[in-house]
Please model this.
Amino acid sequence: MSDESRPAMTRRDLFALIGAAAGSTVMYQAMTSLGHAEESNYRGPLVLDGDPKSASVLVLGAGLAGMTAAYELRKAGYAVEVLEYSGRAGGRCWSLRGGDRYIELDGAVQECRFDTGLYFNPGPWRIPFHHRGLLDYCKRFRVALEPFIQVNYNAYLHAMNAFGGRPQRYRHVQADFTGYIAELLAKATNQSKLDDAITAEDKEILLEALRAWGALDESYTYRTGSAASERRGYAVDAGGGPDAAPIPSTPVGLSEILKSQLWSGLLADRYYAFPTPMFQPVGGMDMIAEAFQREVGDLIRFHAKVIAIHQNDRGVTVHYTTDGDRHEARADWCVCTIPLSILSQLDLSVSAPMAAAISAVPYVPATKIGLQMKRRFWEEDEAIYGGITRTDLPIRSIGYPCSDYGKPGKGVLLGAYAVADIAAFDFGALNPPERVTKAIEWGAVIHPQYKDEFDSGIAVSWQRNPSTLGCFGRWSDDARRLHYSNLCAIDGRLVLAGEHVSYLSAWQEGAILSALDAVKRLHRRVLAG
Model:
């Protein structure tokens, strides 16, 4: 193919190649230099100067966005009331524990039977280090954090049509793919194929770097030996005594690595959204919700199902039901954090542009399944401590707990996380016990211990959750261009907040930042009279 007819490499292609070969740090540095990576724009606690003269605000929804808004508004002197559909605070910031009862849209009831101290996060389960707003609230509200292991080189990559269906250690695939790519690039460099791109001096430096990155030998070849084994691990590890010398492992052939498509599993951990380090609250994600509730819980009216939001130039009236009885709540202003999938179905007094924006964002299906096992076999049998196994089976992922390492007794795995694809829909079409059964069946392909060690499970398909009807809002580029600014606007006396009113869709940070922005703009409007 001539240079003229060869498709131009996009920045996305470039970043993916850099990330696969050199790692996430190098990829992030490249993205930053080209202006494609930005951290959360949080710059510290919100300061709202000026007297609102006891203006009143109704906050709809007690998820993180709603509780952030309520906390900051009350601190600034507003009279605040929060209406929450469910019987708990936190929204998608949620953990299921033994004794919890969860009811889906069609009335299907699940009883969580996990042992005391064990839990499962059906919604968010990790916090990137650059989500500074959320981390700051955790610090201020004294939520203890611990590392979340995003990448574990001893976990697995798996595809049904690769390697006879046998899972491969992440470190094997990563080392072999990187080694062969480095070897090919070194050969091209030595054959002067890159002379137009690099100087003679850079050529020597590049070769040195490729030998180091790819664990190549003196001839710039990736092959069986100590260099490769120091990356991928040894066939027999070193020990003590006269016969304890390590035995090198044998790399898989390049063709098999490429055809397996397992290398694509390496890319998931190199996106800026999933950096190292990541964090999780000690004891479950709902520790964050509980911390917020300690601050604003007295403002929340639970089991309040909003059915209509009406406004005029004097204020906002919200109609809601509790136990079938209809009520009204009135305030000067309203901050609405109800997911758009629900809000679009309510009786609303909003402008045409706002109504169109509310209806423009579909919600993504997702299923997460928590499995309690009789013992932590992934640690005892396979030396997997935290991290994620990725597969093309419908379960998509297996997440290993990132705490209580080596603890005797039972443990809880994330047995499936299917999101935004056909597997998520298919799981949601099953009843909850069937979902758990399928997770056991497919998980046993990777961990045969599943069938003997399974104890109990619980499955959440977000498209069947009555409070959200989906996992998170998914903006298309066209929808953002046409509707995002209208969704952010203060519409009369109503302003929206939530992850859907951010460029951090699906993240708790997006919910918090959107709430802070909404509150700040609303406060300016109030002070302006």
Q: What stands out?
A: The chain has 18 helices and 23 strands. The CA atoms of residues 79 and 325 lie 25 Å apart. Residues 170-190 form the longest helix (21 residues). Residues 1-38 have pLDDT under 50 and may be disordered.
